[in-house]
Amino acid sequence: MENIAPPKYVRQVLRSLQARGHVAYLVGGCVRDMALGVRPHDWDICTGALPEQVMEVFPGALPTGLKHGTVTVRINSRSVEVTTFRSEENYADHRHPETVRFVGELTTDLSRRDFTINAMALSPDGLIMDPFGGLTDLEHRCIRCVGSPELRFEEDALRMFRALRFSARLDFTIEEATLAAIGKKAHLASALAAERIRDEVEKTLLTPRPETVGLMQHLGLLDVFLCARADALPELKLLTKLPRKALDRWMALCVILRRRGLISSVEDFLTALRLDSRTIRCCTDGAALLEGRKPRGAPEWKRLLRRWGVDTVSCAARCRDALDGGSSSRELKSVLKSGECFSMKHLAVSGDDLTALGLKGRELGEMLNFLLDYVIEYPENNRRELLLSLAGNTEEL
Question: Are strands 62-65 and 44-47 parallel, antiparallel or unpaired?
Answer without folding.
Answer: unpaired
